[in-house]
Amino acid sequence: MKRALKYIFKTLSVLVLLIAMLISSLYLPPIQKWAVDRLSAWVDKETEFELTVGSIHLTPLLDLRLESVHIEKAPTDVVDVESAIVDLDLSRLLMLHVGVEAIELSKGNIHITELIESVALDANINNITLIADDIDLRKKCVSVPVAMLDSCVLDIKLRETPEDTSASSPLDWQIDVEKVHVCRSKIVLHLPNDTMCVSASLREATLDAADINLGNAAYGIGNISIIADSLSYDIPSADSVVGLDVNHLSFKNVELKLDKLYFNQGSSALYAQLRRLAFEEKSGFRLDNLSVNLSLDSTCFAATGLDFQTQYSSATGNINLDLDALSKGKRGNLEAELQASLGSKDILCLAAAYLPKDLAKCYPAQPLNLNIDVSGNVDSLSLQVCDITMPSIIDVRTTGAIHNLIDSVALGADLRTDITTMNLSCINRYLGLTDVHFPKMVLHADTRLRQASQISMDALLLEGKGRAHLAGSIDLESMVYQARARITDLQLHDFLPHDSLYLLSAHAKLSGCGTDFLSRKTRLQAQLDIDHLGYASWTLDSIHADCRLKDGKAMAEMNSRNELLQFYGCIDATIDERKLQETSFNMDLGHIDLYALRMAEKPFSASMVMHMDGSSDFRQTHTLNARVEAMELVTADSILHPYDLAVNANLTPDFIQLETLAGDLSLSVSSSQGLDSLLCRFDNVGKELEREIDSLRLQQNVLKDLLPHLRVDFACGAKNPLSNILRHTIGYSFRDMSFQVLSSPMEGLKGNGHMHALNTGAILLDSMEWRIYQKESGVSLDARVANGPRNRMVTFQSELRASLTDTGANANLVFIDAKGKKSVDFGLAF
Length: 830
Description:
Blueprint: H1 2-25, H2 29-46, E1 50-58, E2 63-73, E3 77-89, E4 97-112, E5 119-136, E6 141-144, E7 146-150, E8 153-158, E9 174-190, E10 197-213, E11 218-234, E12 248-264, E13 269-281, E14 286-296, E15 300-310, E16 314-322, E17 334-342, H3 344-350, H4 359-362, E18 368-376, E19 380-390, E20 394-403, E21 412-421, H5 425-431, E22 441-450, E23 454-463, E24 466-475, E25 480-491, E26 501-513, E27 523-535, E28 538-540, E29 543-550, E30 553-561, E31 565-576, E32 579-593, E33 604-616, E34 622-635, E35 639-640, E36 645-651, E37 656-662, E38 665-671, H6 675-695, H7 700-706, E39 710-716, H8 721-729, E40 736-744, E41 748-759, E42 764-775, E43 778-787, E44 796-804, E45 809-816, E46 822-829
Parallel strand pairs: 6-9, 7-9, 8-9
Antiparallel strand pairs: 1-2, 2-3, 3-4, 4-5, 5-6, 5-7, 5-8, 9-10, 10-11, 11-12, 12-13, 13-14, 14-15, 15-16, 16-17, 17-18, 18-19, 19-20, 20-21, 21-22, 22-23, 23-24, 24-25, 25-26, 26-27, 27-28, 27-29, 29-30, 30-31, 31-32, 32-33, 33-34, 34-35, 34-36, 36-37, 37-38, 38-39, 39-40, 40-41, 41-42, ...
């Protein structure tokens, strides 16, 4: 028996020794090289990849080192690594524990296009190190003391792939990471089809104490610190805008410090302590510091300790929100406070793309200060403090409450607003108001909103010693409105310093329903009384106006009884089918002092009686019959009674007829086109003429084809309002004048006219005649001015012949003196 056991022991010893020798041979370099060659040949044969390894070293402790590793799938995928080290600890393998003492890749290039279906990768690697000293396969736990990325460039391009609908088992792993360190590396991420690109050049980034539970979808990080030289976010398809472009962001000198980040997907819990965020953006906006504590769970949200600092702005605040506060009928509460000072440069930079074009030039340099303190919920939100101020410009303070914020039917509010204005010259610059001034004013307003549509307001404006009180209400659904206003001693000259308007005292009432004044359902009743209006050194008072509209019947009356204006006017109109069917206007102007009203340079007053009838469809059909009678014009040295003036007009979509008669004056305008067509023709001629002038070449045939159908006839003697006005205002007189102009695309432009016995006080001209006619070459003008032998100043005759050419004009002037000799005869072409 002992002999048998001895033989068995010797046999097993030999077998063990042979196995030990076989295993030991694996650590011999020739054997390792032979194994690598066989492995490379197998990979090359069984797959599309070519594998080469410069050298391999395996120690008995299972430390594997590969040198000059090259993996290639030509021409799309190439991996070159100068050195790869895998240091494993398998001493606890029987207990289902694996230790990865080190995995390290050094100095390599990776180009992957087709190996991974959803990702393309270009990478330049200096050093990647991973240490996972404890991988518990049974408990599915991984402990990672160190992960490091040093001097690497990663360019990752995501691609669209079909959605994976196959069932997959849940990942229940627990990953604990003590430290992740990235330095001097750049990471670029492209979304599919280049819809978005994110790039980060990291100088140094660290992540400490990360606890990742994939089973519970819970993620916790002790702290994150990032210092980046640059960070960009770009959407290539979006257009660029001025200022801060949210679609093309580019940051530099980015610094981020984040403590105690925790997120649980299952409970929607989030907690983060942002200790510092700072950056500079390419638009010029610079954030010096942003810190805030954030917390969110299924019941509440909080943002506390907000500290926002830039070179020009600062803000602090806190928000505590019960999420129930956002639901109707709940008892949740919102408490928010914000104190901020926003610099003008930051506002213009951040909001440049959304502000009106010229506002930046006029925006004041003062900061915008905010002080807000609100509490409540969507059922009732209390504005305890809401102050918006801009030093030396405006101060707005609002308090009150807003009710039923998310109910579009029951929305309500009770607000009190106090506004103090100071220097509002920025508004003048923006609106281009050179003749308007906004003085210092105080406005007190109480506003009430009910049922989202019923608005009422009571406002008081104070300016100096003047007061303006307005009270009114409107229902936006039914459009029923009413208002009352009273103005007492309001100094209009403070608002219009270049005009002659001064103290105003007036009161008005307004009520009605609807704002579509062409509808028969609209009602309106309005009254205005001006008790006092200072105009220059005069006083306008006793002015009353009354307007009524109901069932398509409109009436308006106005009367004035003061020393500058004695006037009564009345309008009656019938509106039906959105047309002005019948309209009459009667005016009795007893007296108007145009000189006192600064409407004439010399003493001048007038009186007259006017009557007009007409109708209109507010489109292309209009009629008007007007007559001005009993006119009296009073100057410093005379009293005139001009002839009556009559105007008749009839406009339809197919023709225009206008006639004016006054004494021996007559004017007739007619066209075989409607008003819209006529205006369109004039517009086309103007645009074409402008284009040809810019090109320095006149195409008269083109202009001729664009001419409108129009005929104008005018005749005027010495007994009519026009002659009287010329004679008494500028001292001109004439015996008679007439002209006729015809225009059409077929005949072109032609006309003629004359004026006899023109006296300007310094010049006497016996006769002036002119004629325009169309030739094949273009438009021509013949003109003649002559004084006969009986002219007491000078006798002469002059003739002008001119014509337009494609590149300019030709003109010839002849002057014949009193003896019948040519004194001047010259031509000019340009």
